[in-house]
Specification:
339 residues, alpha/beta, Rossmann fold, three-stranded mixed β-sheet
């Protein structure tokens, strides 16, 4: 075993998780990953196949571990079975926290999300890590499940478990094989599947910085504290202009009002629930989030953890290049030499 000890990453095959596993290996750690079956992982990783909802599997995975990174979750904004969010995101986290309390851990880094910190009020200063929300403010089952999971993590920290909470904003960059919601949004625009857009405000960050932020949280984070891992605040219009400049592909210019998007989202989700059983292009939770203030600041993570933020434009270039290389982009790019 490496003299740096052993780290366990739940959800190590996901977008952030895969980058985290790679970075842990690069710094000489022994890495274990708890993942579902049929997940591609590096050969020098010990893989424990199973669910975070299974007590015996989690207990077995934690043997010999000093640091635990709990990323496993359903990150989608829609699922045909709405109970899956609570089952995996909340109950799975409770199982992990309970078993972690039985282990001799140096630190547990829990991956929350910025979507549960959003404000119904547009405008104002960017949201910081001290914000307090209530369950009734959560716009949909995904957000409710992640809110409850974060509350359980805070409670575990109060009870003495060394839990540090990180809240990534929207991660972009290469390697998103599961096509999480931010990547799906960008891919839909690249493939001209959305003729108009609902302008909204959000924060984006390079996924590789988010992975490094997890490691920094384990090294320097204070138990019971939340750190927002984000970078640049921008509007969807800003993002579309950036994509257009990078690729040469014309992006939608037509903006739709929020009330229209709500109608489209409700119809799209009903169709997905009862007819197609496929993920809708406009999940209702996503439409509701678009009406909220999603500008954030990461000063606490920068100052306390030493969190560094790379060029967002370069992260977007790297993501588009990867999507093209992997065959996800169906249109030819006029400026492909630039990506």
């Amino acid at each position: 075993m490496s003299n740096r000890g052993c780290s366990l990453v739940t959800g190590g095959g996901g977008f952030i998780g895969a980058h985290l596993v790679r970075q842990l290996l690069e710094q000489g750690e022994t890495v274990k990953v708890l993942e579902l079956a049929d997940t591609s992982l590096p050969s020098d990783v010990e893989v424990i196949q199973g669910s975070v909802n299974d007590v015996d599997t989690v207990r077995r995975a934690l043997k010999g571990v000093q640091r635990l990174y709990h990323l496993a979750a359903n990150p989608n904004l829609w699922a045909q079975d709405k109970h899956i969010f609570k089952q995996v995101n909340y109950q799975g986290t409770c199982t992990v926290l309970s078993e972690a309390a039985r282990a001799d851990l140096e630190v547990l880094v829990y991956t929350s999300t910025e979507s549960i910190l959003t404000s119904r009020r547009q405008g104002g200063d960017p949201i910081d890590s001290s914000v307090i929300r209530e369950l009734n403010e959560m716009p949909g089952p995904y957000c409710r499940s992640k809110f409850l999971a974060e509350q359980a993590a805070f409670e575990a920290a109060k009870n003495g478990l060394p839990v540090v909470i990180v809240s990534p904003t929207l991660p972009i960059g290469p390697g998103d094989r599961r096509i999480t919601p931010p990547t799906r949004m960008i891919l839909n625009f690249l493939n001209c599947k959305i003729p108009a857009y609902l302008d909204c405000r959000f924060n984006m960050v390079d996924v590789r910085d988010v992975a490094r932020g997890h490691i920094l949280a384990a090294q320097h984070g204070r138990p019971g504290e939340r750190y927002i891992l984000g970078h640049e605040n921008l509007t969807l219009g800003d993002l579309l202009r950036m994509i257009e400049e990078i690729t040469g592909l014309a992006m939608p210019k037509l903006r739709i009002p929020h009330w229209v998007a709500l109608i489209v989202g409700a119809f799209s989700e009903l169709t997905a629930d009862y007819i197609t059983h496929a993920s809708p292009k406009a999940p209702l939770t996503g439409v509701r989030l678009a009406a909220r203030s999603m500008f954030f600041e990461s000063d606490k993570a920068v100052q306390e953890l030493g969190f560094k933020q790379s060029s967002l434009r370069q992260a977007l270039i790297d993501q588009i290049e990867w999507l093209v290389k992997e065959g996800y982009v169906t249109r030819s790019l006029p400026l492909q030499q630039n990506v």
